[in-house]
User: Fold these one by one.
Assistant:
Number 1:
Amino acid sequence: MSRKIINSGWLALLAMGWAVAASASQERASDVPVQPASFAYCGVRDLQQAEPNLTGLDVSIAAVCRSMTYVGGLPQEDYRFNMVHQSLRGGRVFFEDGSEGFYGLSPHATAVGGILIGLDFYGEHPLTGPFVYKGVCPDAAVEVFEFWRFVSLTVFGGKTFSSDILTLSLGEFYEDWWTRGIERLAQKTGTLVVASVGNGLRVSERLLYPAGGANVLAVGVVQAQIEPNGEPSLTSFSLPNRQISSFGPTAEGRCKPDLVAPGRALVPAAYDAGTYEIAGDYSSLAAPVVSGTAALLLQKVYQTPLLAERMRQETRNSVLKAILMTSAQKLPWWHKGGPGKEDDSLVPLDWLQGAGLLDAKEAYVLLTEGARPEEGGLKGWDSPILDSEHPEVVYPIFVPAGQGGWLTATAVWNRSFEEQFPFRPLKEEDRDLRLELWAVGPNLPEPVLLDFSDSPLDTVEHLYVRLPETYTSYELVLRFSQPQATLNRRQQLAGLAWSVGPDKAADNPWWYDLNEDGKIDQIDKSISFIFDQGRAEILADSSLSSQLELGPERVELLSRQWQDWRPYLRLWNEPEEEKFSPFIPGSEN
């Protein structure tokens, strides 16, 4: 594993000693667990094990971090990674202001650094014992920016920006000139911008910008499982929860987040050389997990000429976003938009889960095995160009007879913004796209429209469709939503990906957590009993709902879609009185 030292001075001397220790520690690496353990939940560890040479080498990430301290409204430059920490001191890190990081450190930024590029063969913590610490992309190069320097010099001032990925674990409640400027940067450069959505109702946090922006990949966080001792786990995770992960729609009605990932993890401490701390379920830590995964994908692209040829720079962020969202794992209770099905074609994503849980291994498989558009494979991706002369593109998909399965497909494109402050949207230059799935073939008198996604607000269209076993030939169609007569000759660039496979959510145990409290217990069985008996109306009693820990949104969601979701609770058969006595808080039961 290559680790180039960019920092100089006495820090480099420390790193030389570290390199010797690391080279002698490979034996221990196979004997102890690997942290952060949360990476196993979202496919990162599977990918690292399958492709050990994927380390983020040759990929650059820009990490924008806020100062921890402000005096008179001015940042005090304490925004840096702790580069003395043994997990970071060999990292390929450069501070944009040219300093060595000795003028003020940030626990928040250091945690982000550990998630991205941490590497320590001799980690230890009282709760876990010894471990190997390994971030998502240990050999990626990271340029760390102080937030106000970044928005002043790069966003406002137009300073050259050349990183492959931009990650921000920060935000504001409202769209502003700098959030639009970051969207303009994504549109102009093809850079994938990843941002955290915020930490939910527990801190009264609305969904943050720039994560809420159309050209940004927004990341929410899944909740750690509650252990029998009442403490959150470092190894097991459940679902996103409104209390801990901010959710959509945005003020404009846009779907966010786009993905969710785990956050709770061991991270390097900011103020010494070897201590690790436990960070909670924060979207700030989920975002760099996604950013690091994107770096692994880009490394593969850069090292594979055929992939590099297919993924054009100007659409790179759209294609990566489409691949990551298409390969994401649907979690229990995933649904589009509101609690019913009326808006499913107009709202592309779940307002809490987005497209689902990051699955790094599946994203890699989709990237590397994804067929060219004309091949008709079960997995594929493309970077189409639509214009007035070519207002639609058609992708054939051939499924073996009797196989069926689920098709997931995502189309992504960028909105346009002015090049100068205040970076106003250029709505007259934007075009809206529509994604359709058709069953076709000689045995059909005419094509059958199976599903479509046509949001008037989002720059994402997303399909998740059960394929009938009776059909074998399909066409995925991406087209303009507007009538052709209204189009000008401006091209619309996009990214698109699709995948056909089994229902991976079928055996997820968290279908049984009906009140989304991170536990599966007798209360969940009682809720199931109420819905099985057709007595959902008793949940209108706010005191009963409170005792069952059911919020009004959850009650409505379960009420509207119980019949569709009940089959997933296979272990809880239709209750019989002699087999199951429900527990209802406050009742004699």
Number 2:
Amino acid sequence: MDASWSPVPPSRVTIVDGFWKRWRDLVGTKTLFHQFQELRGEGQIDALALDQKMHRGRAVGDDWYWGGSIFWDSDLAKWLEAASARLQQTKDPELEKLVDDIIVRLERAQQPDGYLNSHILTWRPRHRFKNLRDLHELYCAGHLIEAAVVHHEATGKDTLLSVARRYADLLVERFGNGPGKMNGYCGHPEIELALMRLYRSTGDTRYLELSRFFIDERGAAPNYFDREAVERLDRREFRPNHPGSPYAYMQAHEPIRQQTKVVGHAVRAMYLLSAVVDVGVVIKDASLLETAGRLWRDVIDTKLYLTGGIGSASENEGFTRDYDLPNEKAYAETCASIGLFLFGHRLLQTRLDSEFSDVMELALYNCILSGIGLDGESFFYDNPLASRGTHHRIPWPWWCPCCPPNLARLISSLSGYLLSEGLEGIAVHQYVSCEAAFPGIRLTIKSGLPFAGHNAIEITTEDPSDRTLALRIPGWAGQTTLKINGQSQNVEAQNGYVHLRRVWNNGDKIELNFEMPVRQKFARFDVEADRGRTALSRGPLVYCIEQADNGPDLDHFVLPGQADFHPVEANDLLGGMTLLKGNALRETTSAEKLYTEHVPETEPVELCAIPYYAWANRAPGEMQVWMRRSA
């Protein structure tokens, strides 16, 4: 893979209209303030006082007290990153005041040597870096660093960046293979990709080298976590019932270059692989990039839900065996899909291939967006593909509130994931109504997605500009038409992108329209949960049926093998959307005996499907993505 592209940063891309502007503004005006109140109410903010009396927790059962989570600092840091991204888009004095107040608290809590972790400093001050396996110190540091980079880029202030750099400098001093240094790494990968963001922001190669060290050292024998446990006199057997190697959970079972299958905790795997691509690109390490590509294939070919979710099991919040994709028990954590989105985005910069951008789009519009309610104040941690009516959104998952602020930071910074630039030109990956500035040229993109396939790109330039525009043709698109200044063009895509090389003049207009047929999806036989079932999609959206529209007992519905569904606009439903309606059969016979010789009777009915992201926003009820089908 030859890295020839770079993301166009949010400072040069502004989302101006449409579907994602509504979501971005909802997050900016409502979600962020709701999350701040929850963080303050649960204790994450007061925890920075480093006072046990203010470090609130909860009773769990009769004999155990949750004395402030080991990863609370990361939740606060993700909120800071989301809020900072919002400040880059629009002035908001109230939000900026909240951000500045937290930064002051962080400055006060930081130790003279740069160390900063509210849990350790409050409850285990003598245990710094003594349990990297479990205590998430470097994970929390990573999210602090990411927040600091975004805050600096958004506001120009260096207050939070200075805090993060002091901590990062301490890590540089403490970790590595040199004399007196620790050759350990965090049980939860995150610091690796954060250090790469800090390296790109500052140009300080020490951060690059530390990230590289963490990646190279992880999983090496003898395993650092074994030595660490001995040194802290921890004789407990670690994860004795964990399938395979117990260290697979934290991606430390073997060195990354030796891995052929993605295993363990899904979020940890995606964060690590994102950093693997980052480091591989910068140091031109073909082995790292080949590893990333190999493991990407394993995820996409054997472990990906139709909705873009990954990680099927709650036991390890991650992967099991190939094709193990249950629906009702699907874990599909919101954070895991965000990690997949980040991983795909990094691979996309190494070569233009619509498989990467298609998967990003799939995850974004479906599993990720499912993680937040239409009210902006309720959330899913896990995102099943079927429910009997017992899975509900909640205002805040206090036990592990990682997903809500993670989702908020992605939506707030979404403009930075839409386009890339390089020596070959400009690439448009995601069709979102936005304005993007480049040297000598400006693009204004208007899109009807996700409900309509019409897209237009208008060119603004003072002087003629000779360059290539690479436009993605989504894998879901039906017939595609392309016009430049009203003149039809041939659409010949290379790896899913059509490349338009010409001299562009001010006022030039590109029209790119995708037919959006309703498609039926069928899983390969190996996916046991989906045998004899079908699902519906249109454009980037996966659809589901809900009890609110179709009544109870959804598994009574049977779809023909070639079901005829058509789109219906519903501007007054669930914030406005396009529904799918079509004919199906419903079993009506209910046998009194356990077994019978009579074929169940059926009646024709009209079935209504809504986009998966919008489910569970009305009265509690059943939901299904995969429906029974006839031959």
